[in-house]
């Protein structure tokens, strides 16, 4: 079994890692994409395109449509800069965009906090099952909903 560790980027280091990953994916790092990434990285819980549009609009001094944000977020997800939390129709920043792997999320229904888990053993088992069933994976996302440790304290 192969296990790997990640460098968890933050701040300017995260912005630089995201820019590098996006350029490596063959995309451009524009001022608007930078603004969207910076806005997304401010959230501690999954953010909707509308949440991000509000922040970017304020920072740009002009209205930025959510449709524009959705297009950029799609690029970010494709380039591994962000993950989509399917059940919330919202996004979180990927703190290690240089590493691709399956997404396993623990989603707190009370505070909306999301913990991103990397588990090579679970991923390997799932890929073995997929292969045995001749299934072509487009995207692999696992979400487990419940209460985080902070919210489950009574």
Please, could you describe this protein's structure?
This protein has 154 residues and is of the alpha+beta class. It folds into two domains: 11-93, Orthogonal Bundle (Arc Repressor Mutant, subunit A); 103-152, Dna Ligase, domain 1 (2-Layer Sandwich), CATH 3.30.1490. It is built from six helices and five strands; from the N terminus they run ααααββββαβα. The protein has helices at residues 11-24, 31-41, 49-60, 66-78, 120-132, 149-152; strands spanning 82-85, 90-93, 103-108, 114-117, 141-146. The strands form two sheets. The chain has a three-stranded mixed sheet, with no helix packed on it. A two-stranded antiparallel sheet has the order 1-2. A hairpin with a 5-residue loop joins strand 3 (103-108) and strand 4. Helix 1 packs across helix 2 (31-41), helix 2 (31-41) crosses helix 3 and helix 3 (49-60) crosses helix 4 (66-78). The chain is globular and about 50 Å long. Keywords: DNA-binding, Iron, Metal-binding, Repressor, Transcription, Transcription regulation, Zinc. It comes from Zymomonas mobilis subsp. pomaceae (strain ATCC 29192 / DSM 22645 / JCM 10191 / CCUG 17912 / NBRC 13757 / NCIMB 11200 / NRRL B-4491 / Barker I). One of its GO terms (cellular component) is cytosol.
- Series of secondary-structure elements, N-terminal to C-terminal: HHHHEEEEHEH
Helix proportion: 40-55%
CATH class of the largest domain: Mainly Alpha
Q: How many beta-strand elements?
A: 5
Main sheet, how many strands, which sense, barrel? Answer: 3 strands, mixed
């Amino acid at each position: 079994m192969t296990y790997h560790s990640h460098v968890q980027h933050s701040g300017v280091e995260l912005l630089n890692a995201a820019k590098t990953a996006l350029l490596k994916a063959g995309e451009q790092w524009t001022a608007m994409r930078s603004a969207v990434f910076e806005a997304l990285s401010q959230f501690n819980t999954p953010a909707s395109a509308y949440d991000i549009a509000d922040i970017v609009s304020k920072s740009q001094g002009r209205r930025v449509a959510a449709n524009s944000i959705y297009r950029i977020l799609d690029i970010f997800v494709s380039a591994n800069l962000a993950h989509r939390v399917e059940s919330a129709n919202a996004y979180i920043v990927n703190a290690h965009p240089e590493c691709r792997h399956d997404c396993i999320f623990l989603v707190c229904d009370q505070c909306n906090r999301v913990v991103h888990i990397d588990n090579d053993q679970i991923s390997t088992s799932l890929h073995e099952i997929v292969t045995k069933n001749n299934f072509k994976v487009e995207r692999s996302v696992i979400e487990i909903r419940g209460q985080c440790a902070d919210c489950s304290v009574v």
